[in-house]
Specification:
By secondary structure, the chain is of the alpha+beta class. It has one domain (about 1-260): Deoxyribonuclease I, Chain A. The protein has helices at about 15-30, 60-70, 150-160, 185-190, 195-200; strands at about 1-5, 35-45, 75-85, 85-95, 100-105, 120-130, 130-140, 165-170, 195, 200, 210, 220, 225-230, 235-240, 255-260. Strand 6 and strand 7 (about 130-140) form a beta hairpin. One of its GO terms (molecular function) is catalytic activity. Pfam families: Exo_endo_phos (PF03372). This is Maltose 6'-phosphate phosphatase.
Length: about 270
């Protein structure tokens, strides 16, 4: 089973259309089973095409480009909050697999879409070769945030996930792996395993280089984007992508791709 997560920073990038093409071509080439995206935006003033999606929804355009390339993905998106006074920003999941169930829920204490710290998670339960798995695309807050602390958001997330089946928490967790006794450690305290740590083959895992929005004055390379699993899968590979080495840079975050081995303790991939 092949997974990808990326904070795509949509509509904030220079050469955004070129970068959207790179993302589509990369997904088509790798044929990921599940893709989790964060900062998936659409213009507030754009034309409505479904009950929630607008014409320039970044993920919708991505799916259209994938269709043009010959890859069929199902798509779900949840609106979290407005951004930069002109966008509706949310989280999304794409999958090639049959969908058994889908959900979305708040993890923030705020439910005000005008407040930029309001956070939703979107989830899909899929059938992968006869075995159900659940996936959640997450864009979380910061450990030290007094208004929306990460710990409270994680507690809310864990309350809402399907604990009856193997599941994966994928996305931008805004907590660096090298900071002890904060968010990264708390996720593991809740019983989740970092696929990077489980991987037989891996690179540095760095997903943020230097200063970006939310990490102003940061001059360190950080690992803040993760794929956590509720199980101890046999992970063959965890690799950073869209870092200028493995595919061109297309966002202020690099992505993470993971390959789960066939014949894991929870089924086949």
């Amino acid at each position: 089973m092949k997974l990808l997560t990326l904070n795509c920073h949509s509509w904030q990038e220079e050469d955004q259309w070129k970068k959207l093409d790179i993302l589509a071509a990369s997904i088509h080439e790798a044929a990921y089973d599940v893709v989790a995206l964060q900062e998936v935006s659409q213009s507030i003033v754009s034309e409505q095409v479904t009950d929630r999606l607008k014409k320039d929804n970044f993920g919708l355009l991505l799916v259209q480009k994938l269709n043009d390339l010959g890859s069929t993905y199902k798509y779900t998106w949840a609106f979290s909050h407005t951004a930069y006074d002109q966008y509706e920003e949310g989280v999304a999941l794409l999958t090639k697999c049959p969908i058994l169930d889908q959900t979305e829920f708040l993890v923030s204490q705020s439910d005000d879409p005008e407040f930029w710290k309001t956070r939703k998670v979107v989830g899909l339960t899929i059938d992968h070769h006869g075995i159900p798995y659940a996936f959640y695309s997450c864009h979380m807050g910061w450990w030290q945030d007094k208004e929306e602390p990460f710990r409270c958001q994680m507690d809310q997330l864990v309350t809402n996930v399907n604990k009856q089946i193997p599941h994966y928490l994928m996305g931008d967790f805004n907590n660096a792996s090298n900071i002890e006794a904060e968010g990264y450690a708390y996720v593991q305290h809740l019983g989740y395993n970092d696929t990077f740590q489980l991987a037989g083959e891996k690179d540095s895992g760095i997903t943020v280089a230097g200063e970006i929005a939310g990490w102003e004055k940061n001059n360190e390379n950080k690992r803040i984007d993760f794929i956590f699993t509720s199980t101890k899968d046999k992970v063959r590979l965890s690799r950073v992508i869209f870092d200028g080495i493995n595919k061109p840079v297309i966002s202020d975050h690099f992505g993470v791709e993971v390959t789960i081995e066939n014949g894991t303790m929870n089924g086949t991939s």
